[in-house]
Design goal:
single chain, 337 residues, alpha/beta, Aminopeptidase, eight-stranded mixed sheet, 38% helix, globular
Length: 337
């Protein structure tokens, strides 16, 4: 009987260890496509038709429409049970009026939410987009900014929900992910500058990379008859490793045409300096700027949600999710070179 008891005990121990190892192995081989598929064209469309509606009055920095926009974003995070890194229930990083050169601006807000890393919570991946637009024209036309940058805003919200779905199933990212919606981009990159220069909620030395999304819902003239594409800017300027990871992720999951035309140091458009990633790049933080290029409705009242290619927006958002997933779950943070 004593031998039988010892044998049973050993069998249970082996079974227990085997079960534990299988769970660990499953967690390691989990396919992120399961969660990427929660990012859908229909959900992106539903959100954008609200966010880029006349109700938000063009989301001009400091104006009532911009205040409605930040409430919309905050409520989406609350509904998704994604917390703020600032304080419980406080999603707004206040930027005082004195920070803006324009005396008409009474102050504005960035919106921050995050998912805490399971193994390396102090290392942070930022996914950013600007929440503002150019408001109402002198003739009374509302500039809804569906592509600029409503597309980036709703993409982040869907990406955040995908990471939250993974976390709920025990597959949260190893590193923390900050979902950063910045204000004041259209008048001088103020929101990202304030975060980076004045009040980085997570120390810049712990910030691994910034994936910045600014206009990813349309097609420019160069690609009108082609496959889905994105312009990538800055991916190789501070970290060759980041560029290689980005390329490999695209080949593995998305197979979009990645166009580096605007990444040229001699590009006359100087897009590398014209969106919010730059305030991280200037602090030696590797960046990727995702962009669909300029179209005829850029900064016009005709930039409306009915002109967005939602299938393209879905695929592009999934690519950014996969890139963030890889950066967040690698054993070692990417190197700056």
């Amino acid at each position: 009987m004593k031998k039988l008891a010892i044998l049973l005990s050993a069998t249970l121990l082996i079974t227990s260890c085997s079960s534990s190892q299988n769970k660990k192995k499953f967690k390691q081989i989990i396919d992120p496509k399961v969660y990427a598929k929660t990012i859908t064209a229909n959900e992106l469309k539903d959100m954008l038709y609200v966010y880029a509606s006349d109700k938000f009055e063009g989301r001009q920095t400091g104006e009532p429409g911009q205040k409605k926009a930040i409430e919309f974003i905050k409520n989406k995070y609350i509904a998704a049970e994604i917390p703020s890194p600032i304080a419980k229930g406080d999603y707004f990083q206040e930027i005082p009026a004195s920070y803006f050169n324009n005396k008409k601006i009474k102050g504005s807000e960035n919106v921050l939410a995050y998912i805490k890393g399971s193994e390396k919570p102090n290392e942070v991946i930022i996914i950013s987009a600007h929440l503002d637009h150019i408001g109402v024209s002198k003739n009374g036309d509302i500039n809804n900014g569906a592509d600029d940058d409503g597309s980036g805003t709703v993409a982040i919200l869907e990406i955040a929900e995908a990471f939250k779905a993974a976390e709920k199933e025990g597959h949260g990212p190893k590193r923390s992910i900050l979902f950063l919606h910045v204000t004041g981009e259209e008048i001088g990159l103020y929101g990202s500058k304030y975060y980076a220069d004045e009040d980085p909620i997570f120390p810049l030395k712990n910030t691994v990379a910034d994936l910045n999304i600014d206009m990813i819902g349309r097609v420019d003239k160069k690609h009108e008859n082609g496959k889905n594409y994105l312009y990538l800017i800055g991916s190789d300027k501070l970290s060759k490793e980041l560029h290689n990871i980005s390329e490999e992720v695209n080949k593995t999951y998305s197979n979009l045409e990645l166009d580096y035309t605007f990444n040229d140091d001699n590009d006359p458009n100087r897009f590398y300096y014209r969106s919010d990633h730059y305030n991280f790049a200037k602090n030696n933080i590797p960046v990727i700027f995702y962009f669909n290029g300029i179209h005829d409705d850029y900064h016009k009242a005709s930039d409306t949600p009915d002109k967005i290619n939602y299938e393209f927006l879905e695929a592009r958002s999934r690519l950014i999710f996969h890139t963030a997933w890889e950066l967040a779950n690698r054993d070692e943070r990417i190197k700056v070179d």
